[in-house]
Amino acid sequence: MKAVIATQSGPAARVLSIREIPTPEPQAGEVRVRIATSGINPSDVKRRNVAPAGSPLEYPEIIPHSDGAGTIDAVGANVPAHRLGERVWIYNAQWQRPFGTAAEYCVVPSALAVPLPANIGFAEAASFGIPALTAYHAIHIDGPVSGLTLLVQGGAGAVAFYAIQFAKAAGATVIATVSSPEKAAYARRAGADHTIDYKTEDRAARVAAFTDGRKVDRIIEVDVAANALTYPDLLAEHGKAVVYGSGSPTAVIPASFIRWSTTLQFFIVYRLCELQRAAAIAGIDVMLRANVLDHGDVRRFAFDRVVEAHEAVESGSFGNVILDVVPE
């Protein structure tokens, strides 16, 4: 099979190559998926750049990307035969494993291949694993949000675009921060009630105006290192920031969090427990079958343009970036 291979860290053009390697066979409890689309997320780019250029990766060879979609074409022992031919979306394919979805075939534990409703295409499904699962859990991590006001940071990001929709479906009011008029329009497309351009507007003043001075109940945070110092001006008493990302390995936390009983809740989508994953998958599936989710802009790249696709993610352009591996 053809696969994208990396053996060391560094720029995509230097370290990513396409090679022919043996097609894997599923072992007990596993399925093999003929990959149609492979999703590329910021974490895939970060993993390639986690060490100085030229440094070895965590495995001698890796096939990148955790997200993807396709059709099960082989099953291992203890996997029901009826799964053969099933259209699925994949998550966590390359988490603590060397071989992800940037290949014609990918073998994963059966539970990581989720049945895909017939009304959803593979292009959209390649963005469910990290963006949609992260977004759903971030919104529902602490019970109902109906009647609450949420501030979703980076409102044009792939996670945020879904988070806005999940929050609105659950009855919340949503304010989204953005960095341009184009991204403001994109966040409003997802359903944001209000947007704040953090480059040109005062976040605290705008939040106060939108909430009649009460501030927000919860922040959905993509970069805690950049934004934690702003929380005292944004979060109401007993407010919570749900943190799924950071642009820096360290963050400064204001001591005033004690005074206002502020809660910080951290999580990473790869380490959700079985119950959390099941709840998120079930919630997403309901909305997929009802055909009420907007999956945002999708930038599609042919398989042999994987370097350009990685560079598109690194450029910070909004929307989802996918590789077309084996078209449906």
Tell me the number of structural domains: 2
**CATH H-level superfamily title of the largest domain:** Medium-chain alcohol dehydrogenases, catalytic domain
Sheet-strand content, in percent, reads 25-35%
**Largest sheet, described in full?**
7 strands, mixed
The CATH class of the largest domain, by name, is: Alpha Beta
Mean pLDDT: 95
Would you write up a description of this structure?
This protein has 328 residues and is of the alpha/beta class. It has 12 helices and 15 strands. Strands 3, 4, 5, 6, 7, 14 and 15 form a 7-stranded mixed sheet that branches. The protein has a 6-stranded parallel sheet with strand order 10-9-8-11-12-13, with helices on both faces. The mean pLDDT is 95. Strand 9, helix 6 and strand 10 form a beta-alpha-beta unit. Helix 4 crosses helix 5 and helix 4 packs across helix 11. The chain has 2 domains: 156 residues, Medium-chain alcohol dehydrogenases, catalytic domain (Quinone Oxidoreductase, Chain A, domain 1); 136 residues, Rossmann fold.
